[in-house]
Amino acid sequence: METVDAAAEPTAPSARAEVFYARALRELAKLDLPFLLAGTYALSAYTGVVRETKDLDIVCKPSDYPHVLNHFQDLGYTVEIEDERWLGKVFQDEHFFDVIFAFWYGMAPVTDQWFESAPRIEVLGTPMRVIAPTELIWSKAFVQLRHRYDGADIAHLVLKQHDQIDWQRLLAHMELHWEVLLAHLLNFRWAYPSERDCVPRWLMDELVARLKTQFELPPPRVKICRGRLFSQVDYEPAVEDWGFIDADVDSK
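Structure (tokenized):
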């Protein structure tokens, strides 16, 4: 399995937070369960972008997250299941880490495939596996809120890790949401025009061909607002006032 020489590590908000993160990672490493480090720590390792992080993002399979939460609860930490479709949390006072077992309200559950190409990294003295660039992009693709947007992170990952991205697998992840992938790739091309070749030509041809084919079809009959996958709050008027159906509601 590949080992990544981390380009950088994020800045913890305090010395106490760093101690909490280090202890949490050591405890996770003791469990006989596969997990991946994602979020800002993964981004920094792959791109060298350094910024403060408020937490750790720990990724595991849906079948494993109860064991993670129970382990830390037995150690005296406070745990909560924020959303049973995808997210739990472990707290110690004001510090916490996320236990993510799916992304975006259960739309993308974590599977064994996520671990197959995950490289190794050392963080705060503990060796572990870090989420692969392909899945890191997938995990960030729908972070498009008014107060937070991860499009720049994706552009930096494409710039720095294009040779390590499994583009076929990324397209498979985003098959139903190919327009979101196209939008991110166009954003990358605009931000880094001299680096356009970082994205395979076959992928751009495929996505543009899908767009051209879609132009020939009538608009969908059901008025769905998929923007709610980006932000429940920002697209609330579409569902509350404008007659659109939420994307995760049965439209029949």
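The chain has three domains: 1-131, 142-217, 219-246. Residues 142-217 form one domain.
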